[in-house]
Amino acid sequence: MKKFIETIKNIWSIEDLRNRILTTLLLVLIYRVGSYIALPGIDANALSNFEKNSNQGILGLVNMFAGGSFSRASIFALGIMPYISASIAIQLLTIAVPYFQKLQKEGESGRKKINQYTRILTVVVTGFQASAYVAYLRNQSGGAIIPEYGTFFFWLSTTIVLTAGTLFVMWLGEKITDKGIGNGTSIIIMMGILARLPQALIGEFSAKVAGAGGPILFLIEIAVFIMITVGLILLVQGTRKIPVNYAKRIVGNKQYGGVRQFIPLKVNAAGVMPIIFAQAIMFIPATAIGFATNSESASSFVRIFSDHTNGWYNLIYAVLVIVFTYFYTALIFNPTQMADEMKRNNGFIPGVKPGKATADYIGAVMDRITLPGAFFLAIVGIMPGLAAAFKINSNFATFFGGTSLLIMVGVILDTLQQIESQLLMRHYDGLMSTGRIKGRTAPANA
């Protein structure tokens, strides 16, 4: 405890770090306040049924990323999701389109152009999603929460407000990244998820005290939750280090190279994306068949894909997570490019020839370590369904794994890593006495 208090004092004594943390907290507070401001013209008294329907299926996933703003018909109802969708689309274009590949290699100027394209695409995506959201408000409420003074005017004003709200949230995320601590977009998402945790804990505790299990069963659930969190930390931090030697070069009177470094290949390079993709795919069959027919066989099929406690649902979901883990890792990981950069800098892996042999070796190592990472990620993905099957409150069960816990663990580790880097840079002790905290992005020589 004494070490913890001393560390807090050290953090507070560093003016730049203190200002960054306070700036982050202020901007997050602005976002959370805005998430409770309803859209102009919305009847707030008629939102109760709408909130209940918006917490189910894929809309529940959207609502989670929006920090509950989606179900509250807030000015931030779409949250940061359009920006994330645009970022993923641009990221895929940098892999498939030569023009964007060229921009990516141009350094700072190329990065600025890519960011500009991302912002433009965000406006387009937000416009489409805002229009769909207005239609969803009308269909779900039967017009009860929509004002009567003009459908077109409400559609136009709401689309403009939602687009402006998403752009403002995007701006908040960029300001947190520049002036605050941590990745702004990730912190905004994490805070929206974290805001639901106290209510979920209170609801689960009340249910267990009123039931037969009592507080002992609640403590067992908390212990299991902590164990899952520890396992997830190991997954996020897990790396396979490949040694790389650099040949010595003498230029004038100076010697360059001749050092040994490591390439840290992450066990879970795909992050949370496979779970998000798998969740989106799992909602498609039930939605399509539900609209197509009402037969008994179709109804049983829909139940499989809509009940996350069903065994078949969890099996199919786990397989999809494993498949998408390999797919997304293949998209973002380029062993050929890594081998070319090593060859250009006179680097080589001991016992492996430079060039294609090096690329094949790195790719083979990545394939081997991705397999256990994919299986563990699949287990993490189905844990909320298993928790709900054991009669855990649905709100609290979502924190037993899946997207919520993975994002929280990853973002918290990244933020703590940045705080620790600031401390070590000023010759203070780090946050951990046993070693440095490693986030999702390890240093090149780690």
How many distinct beta strands?
Answer: 5
Discrete helix count: 18
Task: Give the second-level CATH assignment, the architecture of the largest domain.
Answer: Orthogonal Bundle
Question: Which blocks of ≥5 consecutive residues have pLDDT under 50?
Answer: 441-446
**Anisotropy-based shape:** globular
| Structural classification | mainly alpha
CATH T-level topology of the largest domain: Preprotein translocase SecY subunit
SSE succession: HHHHHHHHHHHEEEEHHHHEHHH
Q: Which percent range fits the helix content?
A: 55-70%
Taking the sheet with the most strands, its summary is: 3 strands, antiparallel
Would you tell me the overall average pLDDT?
A: 79
Strand content: 5-15%
> Quick one: CATH superfamily of the largest domain?
SecY subunit domain
What is the radius of gyration computed over CA atoms, rounded to a whole number of angstroms? 24 Å
> Please, how many domains?
2
The CATH C-level class name of the largest domain: Mainly Alpha
Widest β-sheet, arrangement of strands: 4-1-5
Cα distance spanning the termini: 29 Å
